Every structure is written in structure tokens, then in C-alpha cells.
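This protein record is not my work; I was only asked to verify it. The record follows directly below this note.
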Amino acid sequence: MKRPLLATLLVNVIALVLAQAAFAAPELKTLAPGVYALVGGEGKTNSGFVVTEKGVIVIDTQGPGELAKLLREKIKETTAKPITHVINTHYHGDHSFGNQYFSEGLIIAHENTRKALIENDEGHRTMFRKFFGAESLKEFSLTLPEATFTDRMILRHGGRTMELIYAGAKAHTDGDIFVWLPEERVLFAGDLLYSGRLPLLNDGETTGALKAIDKITSTDASVLVPGHGPVSTIDDALRYKGYIEALRAEVKKMMDNGMNREEVASKVSLPPYSSWLMYKEWLPANAARVFDELTSEREKKE
């Protein structure tokens, strides 16, 4: 019963995602001198770039070709310096399928991100087309990370220092990293953080997601760039953590009351988060995912 339920939930939101795409005009934000975020409208995907003395470091390359090209245009409008590095925070296509438009830079990611891009290629492309349209990968060429790591990497380039830090466990995916600029106190969180919008949790685990938020909030970042949503703060990260904790608690209560997976997904409600984007669309699928996670946790204890 698991697959039909999730499949139905996903199909129900695809039309909405496509309908919203036309209104998702990205906006370039200056976060610190030489540090920028391209923030997607209506909670769409965020990217970033850092201008160094030697060149530009791009963080997440968008997915649809037109958005990847727009990101490149924004970089060109900002600086004449070449692109030297690209960082993928995780494998999802809306953050990595634009790699081909920045292939002159050294592409860096967690080892699991490279692995997922290879092993999940066919299914990944199918799901991407469902969300972004049949023609969204018309010019697409899979462009993989060339440099990978498993725990932490320090990138020193052109007078900048950036720490690339693994989430530590499966969180949004099993290859999530965040990018920390300690001197500028700016942190690019990828999809380890959403702000004002629900995530889709079907590819990760909430226990790892909570630990990742703890890692992020242990920094003294003054500016956080989520994977989706407006430029944020540590307080916003704590609010996102609160959503995950509330979801786990509510699903546990429903399970304790004897509800099965389908009942949990159809009846779950978290009013404090009802104003967040994708609340109605993603909450049932997220509840189903947490049901599976809590069921597995209980089985391990028995």
C-alpha cells in the first residue's frame, strides 16, 4: 500500500508545481561583499555564488536549463572573473542538473551525491520531467562532480575560506552538505533547511535532518541561505527544526491511537505550519514517510 499512496500524493501536486513555475522569478541578493544568493520566487530553488580574487565559486546550479542560464547571466553581470569551482549541496536535479552550464569549474560534492546521480539517473530524470515538464531536459547532459569527499573539505581559493561539511547521516538525502563561510558568517544550507515552505521528505530521514539542523545552528552564522525560501537566520532554522519535531510527535500520537499509514497521511494536521508553502501538498506525504521511519525505529527496539 505504500507505493500507491505516495504515488497518488505526488501526482496530485505535480500540476500545482508546474502552474507555479511561471511565477517563480528569482531575485539576486547580496549577502556580504562578493557573496550572493539567487533566491527563487514562491519557494523555488536557491543558488549562490562567491566572488574571489581568482574566480567565482558557484553553489548549486539550478535544474531547468533556463534557470541555470539565468544564474550564469547574473554572475556575468556581477563580475568578469571566470568560474573556477562548483559545489553541489546534494544530488536532486533542481540543484545539480545545471552543472553542464558551469563545467569549466571543478565540480565538488559529497561522494554519495556523485553515486546517487549515477545510480538513480533514469528514475531521477523521470521525476524531474514530471515536476518541470516534458521538455525540461531537452538539452540536458549529466555532468558529474569530479572532486568528492566523505566528511569535510576546506576550500581555500582567492582569499576566501569555505568549509564544506557533511550532514553526518541521511538527512534530506544521504549526501547533503552545507557550505560555511566563517569570515563572512554566511552559510549555504542546501535542502537541509527550508524557510516558510514544507520540504518533501521522501528521500531522507527526519532523525538525520534534526541532527543536521543542530550542526547548522552550532555555527555563529548571521545569514543562512536555505535550499528553498527567503534568506534566513538561525531563528528560522530553529523554526524548521520545530516543524520536523512537531511532525514526528503528531505522527507518533496518531500511531499510538491505532491509526494505520493511510489514516495518518489523510488525517494529519499541523495548524502552526498551515501558512507555509506546500503545506497541503506535502504534509500527507511527509506524514507517511515519518510513519515508515517510526515503524522501523520501533521494530529495531523489539
User: Anything to note?
Assistant: The longest helix spans residues 234-256.
